[in-house]
Amino acid sequence: MGTLDGKVTIVSGSGRGIGREIAVKLAGEGASVVVNDLDAEPAKETVAAIEAAGGRAVSCVGSVTDADFAERFVATAVDSFGGLDIIINNAGYTWDNVIQKMTDEQWDAILDVHLKAPFRILRAAQPVISSAAKQARAAGEPVPCRKVVNISSIAGLGGNAGQANYAAAKAGVTGLTKALAKEWGRYNVTVNTVAFGLIKTRLTETPAGGDGTIDVQGREIKVGVNPDLLSAMERMIPLGRGGTPAEAAGAVYLFCLPESDYISAQTVICGGGYA
């Protein structure tokens, strides 16, 4: 018996990295998972990993910034598994520059993926969440506690040089969380944020100044962190190291547990003691 048996979960950006670990963790605890990635192959690999471990998963491939994505994402959960219980807004990337060199395209792209996309997914989910709560009440049954976990960053709490777009978007995620916690409390939904510190993924372990890039809908975006800066960052973390994607997934899982059913509108920093 898993702690999330019978729950239906959607996890954006779950083909790789932290998102993949979140999807695998929740599926391992019994949840049925809709996996999303921009590309079909990583999504397929995550679904295969979940199924190989005895879990249930389907994929919903596409960009979270597409106008029709949110409705399709939510519909995949309802059509495949019969409902929706847990929403994890995880998809994202960084596109850094100092403000005098940052273009409107850079600003808009990062705000779209980190803030507009979660807003659209939650908006699309509202009719499903509301209807399920009303049906339970009409039948005289208790309304199950549903969960939303929005992913933020310590950059959204304290800012970060060269990341005005990312910091602004992630700060906005906190506001979105707090507002929705007040709106959806009547449906017995908790809404919380996990803000990550330094988590070691392909985006942070690639050396800065090298050839590391990611392709985002035709845009080749350079990624990487200066190794000296990375080492300095790790020395500032009380636990003395960056976190792993599995540890990041564990922080998200805490807000999905029944034991967290009375915790809402909160932001927890998963950063090894760095704050």
Task: Walk me through this protein's architecture.
The protein is an alpha/beta fold and 275 residues long. The chain is 45% helix and 16% strand. The chain has 9 helices and 9 strands. The chain has a 7-stranded parallel beta sheet, sandwiched between helices. It has a two-stranded antiparallel ribbon with strand order 7-8.
Please outline what is shown here.
Helices cover 45% and strands 16% of the residues. The chain contains nine helices and nine strands. Helix 4 links the parallel strand 4 and strand 5.
Q: Ranges with pLDDT <50 over ≥5 residues?
A: none
- Looking at the structure, what is the overall shape? globular
DSSP strand content: 15-25%
Secondary-structure element series: EHEHEHEHEHHEHEEHHE
Q: How far do the termini sit from each other?
A: 36 Å
Going across the major beta sheet, what is the strand order?
3-2-1-4-5-6-9
The overall pLDDT average reads 94
Q: State the secondary-structure class.
A: alpha/beta
What is the secondary structure topology, with strand pairs?
Elements: E1 8-11, H1 17-28, E2 32-35, H2 40-52, E3 56-59, H3 69-81, E4 86-89, H4 104-138, E5 146-153, H5 154-158, H6 164-184, E6 189-196, H7 202-205, E7 213-216, E8 219-222, H8 227-236, H9 245-256, E9 267-270
What brief labels describe this structure?
45% helix; 9 helices; alpha/beta; seven-stranded parallel sheet; globular
